[in-house]
Amino acid sequence: MQEASLRHRPESEDCFVIDKNHLRLRFHTAKADVKKVIVHYLDSYYDLKTAQKQEMTKIGSGQVADYYMTTLELPLHRCQYTFEVVGQDGSHIIYGDRGIREYNDSNLYDYGQFFKVPYFHEIDMAKTPAWVKETVWYQIFPERFNNGDKNNDPVGTKPWNPADHPGREDYYGGDLQGVLDKLDYLQELGINGLYFCPIFKASSNHKYDTIDYLEIDPDFGDKKLFKKLVDEAHKRGMHVMLDAVFNHLGYQSKEWQDVVKHGRDSKYFDWFHINYLPVTPFKDPSKGEGMPPYDTFAFEPHMPKLNTANPEVQKYLLNIATYWAKEFHIDAWRLDVANEVDHHFWKKFHAALMAINPDFYIVGEVWHSSQPWLNGDEFTGVMNYPYTQQIEDHFLTGKISAEMLTQVLFDQLMLYRDCVNSGMLNMLDSHDTARLLTLADENQDKALNALAFELIQPGSPSIYYGTEMAMTGGNDPDCRKPMDWDKAGNVYWQKVHDLIEFRRKHAAVLSQSDIEFAVEDDLIEVKHGQLVAYFNTSEHEVKIDKQASVSNGYQNGILSPNGYILCE
User: Which GO terms are recorded in the biological process aspect for this UniProt protein (predicted)?
Assistant: First the structure.
């Protein structure tokens, strides 16, 4: 047995409370190396010789590991446990809190070998609001979605043309009235979550360089209009998520301009990470001028980084976060550049919002493994790029095989607790990436195949505006073209609608981590309980006889390349 590959970590994604009486355990082994894993468990204060035992179930395999799981029932809300592991080679060991021991009664009943969960505290549990698991999000870049009020168009607004290739400084006049005008359309599509890129007062068209977080940008409307938009969305059963950047401010914000004017005498001087004075004229790395004398987002001198360890900055940002939740009843925050803000602040942020609404949804923009933020006291989930980009690497670019896809996806799922996987925000494209259809080389079947696969994964799926219209676009800013409203209701639109409808109908099952992957006869098979789906990512037709609920490229028992079947 490869003992070095055995792994379990208490009070983590390997050991978590799922309700006041039940504890879920996971155990990691090398692939095809272990015959069985048995957990011995009992109340923390019972005699060890009264321990019960339960064989764990192998739930899946990753690239190098097999994963085992079981759920224990403990009526007194506390537990101690250890693992008995039997290898394929006949070796027999105890894996416990103080290491690996040969299996015998002496080692089995050694108090020091038992992991402990002293009490199942509900307040410590990571939780995902039930509504999040039922939501299909629609990401709206407000400046490019719909121009509902030409009276607030910025000077130099261009004609609305979906065929344009936008420049970084271009404006097209999209606004909140335009979103309000299209709520019925979004409801018809099947959307029940609106995810807005920033709508606060800012200097740019993208609004990530915030000037004032407590004001709606006048290019988009005002607070009265936003309140009406939220209320109308809620009437339609839609939740609303706003996007904010608490990592940095815009260069034109009053706080930064006060530093520019007064230097060290500014009351906001300690709000930022200033390395030396003067801060102007700033250097611009994009022009080969070197680094500015203060920390920024990336190398962008127009976005000075906030010192979120400063109590005044914390108070300022927490007031913003709670203001929009209390006054406008938004349901969620998406947090830009979340991994560059300290954990201490995010814990305060979480506590402040939970005090207002325990079902509030908090999503961080983190593009890498995110366990430190997902322990129940910071974020509900993150933008699940490490998961969804694996899907792109197989379905869209062919960088990895079907077998490797299923392995790396299961490895990703095992990084987090089940409820955390249910709260991850899944997307195949966004305002920061090339569009799905462009990534698919404008092959509509290939794009739909990837979208269908995403929509049956654990988590909360998000669709970028215009995906249903088969819009194309390269990396930013080309992925931010004006919405093409002429394609609503066409064949491609209907197929996206049907996928969303299937997801919404089966959200209670599909949002969960209990998923099985298999690859056989050139098909990827995905099982969620009684739901089964098949995906053909090969270059030839495959014979398969199934009763499809939703499909593309399936006829007379033949599934074409880039075809899928979703079965109830």
Answer: carbohydrate metabolic process
CA distance 510 to 456: 6
Nearest-angstrom CA–CA distance, 115 and 276: 51
Cis preceding-peptide flag for 477 (omega within 30 of 0): yes
The string over 471-506, giving b where at least 16 C-beta atoms fall within 10 Å of a residue's C-beta and e elsewhere, is bbbeeebbbbbbbbeebbeeebbebbbbbbebbbeb
* Domain range for 380: 133-248+301-510
What is the reported pLDDT for 287? 83
Contact predicate 423/383, CB 8 Å: no
Joined together, the tokens standing for residue 471 give: 């819009």
**Domain shared by 464 and 429, yes or no:** yes
Task: Provide φ and ψ at 257, rounded to 5°.
Answer: -65, -30
Q: Is 102 found in the same domain as 60?
A: yes
Cα–Cα distance list, 38 to 29, 93, 95, 313 (Å): 13, 11, 10, 51
Q: Is the pLDDT of residue 353 over 80?
A: yes
- Find all residues with CB under 8 Å of 244, minimum gap 6, and list them: 198, 200, 210, 213, 320, 321, 333, 334, 335, 336
Q: Do both 223 and 265 map to the same domain? A: no
In the predicted structure, residue 420 carries a pLDDT above the cut 80: yes
**536 in Cβ contact with 552 (< 8 Å):** no
Q: Report if residue 563 sits inside a domain.
A: no
Question: What is the distance between the alpha carbons of residues 359 and 381, in angstroms, rounded to a whole number?
Answer: 13
Within a domain: residue 560?
no
* Helices 223-235 & 311-328 angle (0-180, nearest 10): 60
Local confidence band at 346 (pLDDT 50, 70, 90 cut-offs): very high
Classified as helix, coil or strand, 8 is coil
- The residues that are catalytic are 336, 365
Q: Three-state DSSP class for 4?
A: helix
Residue 230 exposed, middle or buried by CB count within 10 Å (0-12, 13-18, 19+): buried
Q: Are 473 and 435 in contact (CB under 8 A)?
A: yes
Structure tokens at 394: 């197989």
Prediction pTM value: 0.95
Please list, in sequence order, all residues whose beta carbon lies within 8 angstroms of the beta carbon of residue 203, skipping any fewer than 6 positions away: 209, 211, 250, 251, 252, 302
The whole-angstrom separation of Cα 486 and Cα 479 is: 18
Residue 216 · residue 171 · CB < 8 Å: no
Number of domains, the chain: 3
515 is written with which tokens?
């998923």
User: Are 472 and 441 members of one domain?
Assistant: yes
Strand 542-543 with 22-30, pairing: unpaired
Task: List CB contacts of 289: < 8 A, sequence separation 6 or more.
Answer: 283
Distance of alpha carbon 53 from its chain centroid, rounded? 36
Taking Cα atoms as reference points, which of 127, 59, 162, 26 lies closest to residue 360? 127
Could you give the count of Cα atoms lying within 13 Å of 205 in the half-sphere of its Cβ? 25
DSSP 8-state assignment for residue 543: E
Instruction: Please give the Cα distance from 361 to 423 (Å, whole number).
Output: 8
Q: What is the pLDDT of residues 127-167, one digit of tens each?
A: 999 999 999 999 999 999 999 999 999 999 999 999 999 99
Torsion of CA 112, 117, 119, 120, to 10 degrees: -170
